[in-house]
Amino acid sequence: MNDIDAWVWWLVGAAALGIPLVVTAMPEFGMLAVGAVAAAIAAGFGLGVVVQVLVFLAVSVALIAVVRPIAARHSRQRPQLATGVDALKGRQAVVLERVDGSGGRIKLAGEVWSARALDTGRAYEVGQEVDVVDIEGATAIVM
């Protein structure tokens, strides 16, 4: 195998590593593919097989060691944009029917919701503004 063929084989290896990346969505395969591309570049410069393998290993291990922890940290973070029920927590609502520990109605985000007071001894009268602290099923918990 001459130097020209070596870089082609490294690119074939990179493409082969791209297939399980797409199928399994495991980013490690992509990092190995980048290592194979780096080895193909080393082969293109005429460096020996040992150097090519070392470049492949160094780039792949470096990417896995650096990128993987960053990706893991980002996957554990809560999304910046709250959607659904989470988007309603912390919003203000207007009382439509008296709200106490047993129930009532509020207008929240343009919709009528059943609601109950967080403090069961507290009552909110019609027209009063309340803060939504939680959502339990279809009931807003307010204070």
Task: Describe the structure in your own words.
With 143 residues, this protein is an alpha+beta fold. Helices cover 48% and strands 24% of the residues. It is built from three helices and five strands, in the order αααβββββ. It has helices at residues 3-24, 27-44, 49-76, and strands spanning 92-100, 103-108, 111-117, 129-136, 139-142. A hairpin with a 2-residue loop joins strand 1 (92-100) and strand 2. The longest helix has 28 residues, at 49-76. The mean pLDDT is 90.
Descriptors:
alpha+beta
Determine the structural class based on helices, strands and strand pairing: alpha+beta
Q: Estimate the mean pLDDT confidence.
A: 90
Number of helices: 3
Element-by-element helix/strand order: HHHEEEEE
Helix content: 40-55%
The biggest sheet amounts to: 5 strands, mixed, barrel
Tell me the total number of β-strands. 5
CA-atom Rg in angstroms: 29 Å
User: Low-confidence parts, pLDDT < 50 over ≥5 residues?
Assistant: none
Amino-to-carboxy terminus distance: 76 Å
Strand order of the largest sheet: 1-2-3-5-4
What share of residues are in beta strands?
A: 15-25%
Judging from the principal axes of the Cα atoms, what is the shape?
Answer: rod-shaped
Q: Could you write a compact summary of the structure shown?
A:
With 143 residues, this protein is of the alpha+beta class. 48% of the residues lie in helices and 24% in strands. The chain is built from three helices and five strands; from the N terminus they run αααβββββ.
